[in-house]
TrEMBL record:
CDD domains: CAP_bacterial. Residues 53-168 form the SCP domain. InterPro entries: CAP_dom (IPR014044), CAP_sf (IPR035940). Gene3D superfamilies: CAP (3.40.33.10). Residues 1-24 form the signal peptide. This is CAP domain-containing protein. Keywords: Signal.
Length: 182
């Protein structure tokens, strides 16, 4: 009995230490907020040659000249794709004639004509292109007779409604001369 009484303070101390360690371990567990997905945006490569071939074949069917790839328009497109991906929406002041003009000016891209197509939710280039062809306004941009160059970009988002954001920017820089009146 005497031995049992002498173990009680030790057992009580051990119980307190174990409880403290257990509570400390619980504090190391992730909280509810830590288990939620953090939004991650990732710029995705686009097969530029395939896009240009597809676009120029479509323009040729409508009697329009071919466009050239323009890395500066790729950059303008990428910034816009990221902008709409951050918002998980295409509803932004930047998607307007004034917004496009302002973004091209900011990029130092002097031009006579410019247009852009946005798309959200399309899993691949073919789907985005078909979507643009099927929309009157977007199709008008694909067949714009005044543009001479094109850039395209895609940004993915791991959370949200749309996940895939596409931007195609079409323009005619000053270097290509004034458009002729048709």
């Amino acid at each position: 009995m005497h031995q049992l009484n002498s173990l009680r303070p030790f057992a009580a101390t051990l119980l307190v230490v174990m409880s403290t360690l257990l509570l400390a371990a619980c504090g190391a567990l992730p909280g509810a907020g830590d288990l939620e997905d953090k939004t991650v945006l990732a710029n995705q490569p686009v097969d530029q040659t395939r896009m240009l071939t597809k676009l120029n074949a479509y323009r040729q069917q409508h009697g329009l000249p071919a466009l050239r790839l323009d890395p500066e328009l790729d950059q303008v497109s990428q910034k816009m794709a990221r902008h709409i991906a951050e918002r998980d929406s295409m509803q932004t002041w930047a998607h307007s004639a004034f917004g496009l003009s302002q973004r091209l000016d900011k990029a130092g891209y002097a031009n006579y004509a410019a247009a852009e197509n946005l798309g959200a939710g399309y899993a691949d280039l073919d789907a985005a292109f078909r979507g643009w062809q099927g929309s009157e306004g977007h199709n008008k941009n694909l067949l714009n007779p005044y543009v001479t160059r094109v850039g395209i970009a895609r940004t993915n988002r791991n959370t949200g409604k749309w996940r895939n954001f596409w931007v195609m920017t079409l323009a005619r820089p000053y270097a290509d001369g004034r458009p002729s009146v048709r």
